[in-house]
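This week, look over our next protein:
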Amino acid sequence: MKEQENIAIAREYFIRADQGRADVLDLFQTDAEFYFPKFGFGFGRESLFELVKGFGDSLEFIQHDYDGLHFIPSGDSLVVEGASKGKIAGKTWEGGVTPGGRFCNVFKFRDGLISSIHVYLDPDYTGDDEARFRWGKDRSW
């Protein structure tokens, strides 16, 4: 049952984060740890806002594919693989259609709240870093 509760909390995290709701912090321990590529580590739940500020006004929206989320529970840990779509700096992305938008998050839980979340993805959502597309951008995704 605990694993199902952790899945429900993680799903709620994606919903609240996509909606930009401040109460997303209610899902986290006060000493929560965050990891995001190019941001590094943040400590304390307020560091989630610091991470989001890094996008400035360029992130117009993000929407995770809630129905397509793949949950892999293991005790107090939960791996979530999925896709997102959105718009950043006037350009759109959609996981599975464009190069960006696929992700894997590793959550850890303590006492019914998220104690850690590590996000693994390429933060170049719209493929602007063309020099590192070793196999071209015209492949099917």
Notes: The radius of gyration is 15 Å.
